[in-house]
Amino acid sequence: xxxxxxxxxxLDETLDCGQCFRWEKFGDKYIGVIKDRVVKLWMQExxxxxxxxxxxxxxxxxxxxxxxxxxxxxxxxDISKIDGTIKNCVDNSSGIRFLKQDKFETIISFIIxxxxxxxxxxxxxxxxxxxxxxxxxxxxxxxxxxPSIEELSVASKExxxxxxxxxxxxxxxxxxxxxxxxxxxxxxLETLNTKELKKELMKxxxxxxxxxxxxxxxxxSRKECFPVDVWIKRVMQNLYYNGLExxxxxxxxxxxxxxxxxxxxxxxxxxxxxxxxxx
DNA sequence: TGCCAGGCCTTCC
DNA sequence: GGAAGGCATGGC
Length: 279
Hints:
Elements: E1 2-5, H1 11-15, E2 24-26, E3 29-34, E4 37-44, E5 47-52, H2 58-65, H3 72-80, H4 84-92, H5 103-112, H6 118-132, E6 135-138, E7 141-144, H7 149-152, H8 157-162, H9 169-180, H10 186-189, H11 194-201, H12 209-219, H13 230-240, H14 248-259, H15 263-275
Antiparallel strand pairs: 1-5, 2-3, 3-4, 4-5, 6-7
Helix pairs in contact: 3-4, 4-15, 5-12, 11-12
The structure holds a DNA duplex.
């Protein structure tokens, strides 16, 4: 077990905000899978406690995953200056952090998210892990890692359809194949600037503008990315356009100008407050 | 029943 | 290059 002193971390806001799909809460503890290990997380005052099926290098893994070396208190203070609505949202959902998740898992997860709802997304990802991922036993229970590109590349459209992914079956098959054959090379993505990265990700089947922005925000630490989904669209139309219908491209361009380098963080606070009916 | 869900792809103009 | 229509499935 490791103990890490933290500030500005709210596990509920961070792990149950739609950026990740594999965490479950038992009492005040979260259990989930990070890459090759099962992890249990809980907070006591300003300490984060971590247990895992694999203790090796655990603190560093958690620091990277939860973005613990970035000063979110300062970022929240900065973005609260943008306007009163954002300040209220940030106050309501303070402590959201942006995960650095496994890239392949995030790509597939957000392909599945298109025109879908969160409970069903979770169910599909869990079933894919059970069928194609490695088994890990921890604390007397069985867990499954999310499959690697190679492991998922054996899946057929028909098999995936049975796991509940619906019409997205062929996107998953095609995207996995493109990554396996390095038509899009996972190894160089990190080196690209955000604009180039988005263009590259959108070559993948089932990855459009919104899904690419989610992938960049939730697994590449690109905090300037602003995913425009149905919730954010409504929130933004109400806040800035008198409730008029505005297309997603315009909303995205205006948000990038208005919010700058932390647009993604603003987005997530707006998203959380929009979902909860606060705005 | 009909509508919606963290949209994208294809077709057609 | 932009606008429609189609797409699986479960929950309400």
